[in-house]
Amino acid sequence: MVFNLAIGFTDLTANDDSYALFLGDTVLVRADEPAELLTPSRKLVKNVAIFLEVDKEETNGDSKEDLQQHLADNTTILENRTRQEREMTAEEKRKSRQRELGDQLNETARRRLLEKDGPSSNSKSSKSAAVAYRHASLLPRDADVQDLRIFVDTKHEAIVVPVCGQSAVFHISMLKNCSKTEHGDYSYLRLNFFCPGNTVGRAEGAAFPDASATFVKELVFKASNARNPTTQTVPSTNLSTAFRLIKEAQKRYKTREAERKEMEGVIAQAALVVSQGRVVPRLKDLYVRPSLGAGHHRSQGILNAHVNGFRYQPYKGDTVDILYNNIKHAIFQPSKGEMIVLLHFHLKNAILIQKKKYNDIQFYAEVGEVVTDLGRRQNMHDRDDLEAEQAERDMRHRVEMAFKSFMDKVQQFSNLEFDTTFRDLGFHGVPQRSSVFLQPTTYCLVHLVESPVTVITLSELELVHFERVSFQMKNFDAVLVMKDYKRKVFMINSIPMTSLDSIKEWLTTSDIKYTEGIQSLNWAKIMKTINEDPEGFFQNGGWSFLDPDDSDENGGDDSDEEGDDYQPSGSDDDVSEEESSDEDYSDEPSESEEEDELDSDESSGKDWSELEEEAIADDKEVDFEGQEEIPAARKRKSGSTGGGSSAKKRRH
Question: What is the model's pTM?
Answer without folding.
Answer: 0.62
